[in-house]
Inverse folding.
């Protein structure tokens, strides 16, 4: 399964980021905190780059409606430095192993 991403323009990034994070967290908890569901944020430089949120492949199973509303785009596995936003502490390691 592919990764998905949402790019937020700098002007809207911080408020929209908090809103998306809260909605994703509700879905994550309601799904029983699955090991393959996670949201990450690429390193962000306010004023210079868009904020990019990445959703693990398993997120499509549990957060399909949210990803559709956000118009999350399919993307390759991210290569940027990522910060775990929602998910298990070992989420990135688990997802990378599963997609190896």
């Amino acid at each position: 399964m592919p990764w998905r991403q949402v790019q937020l323009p700098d002007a809207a990034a911080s408020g929209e980021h908090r809103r998306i994070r809260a909605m994703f967290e509700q879905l994550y908890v309601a799904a029983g905190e699955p090991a393959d569901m996670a949201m990450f944020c690429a390193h962000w430089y306010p004023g210079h780059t868009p904020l990019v949120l990445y959703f693990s492949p398993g997120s499509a199973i549990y957060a399909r409606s949210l990803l559709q509303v956000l118009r999350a785009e399919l993307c390759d596995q991210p290569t940027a430095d990522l910060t775990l936003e929602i998910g298990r502490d070992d989420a990135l390691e688990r997802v990378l192993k599963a997609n190896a």
Strands lie at 3-8, 39-42, 51-55, 73-75, 82-86.
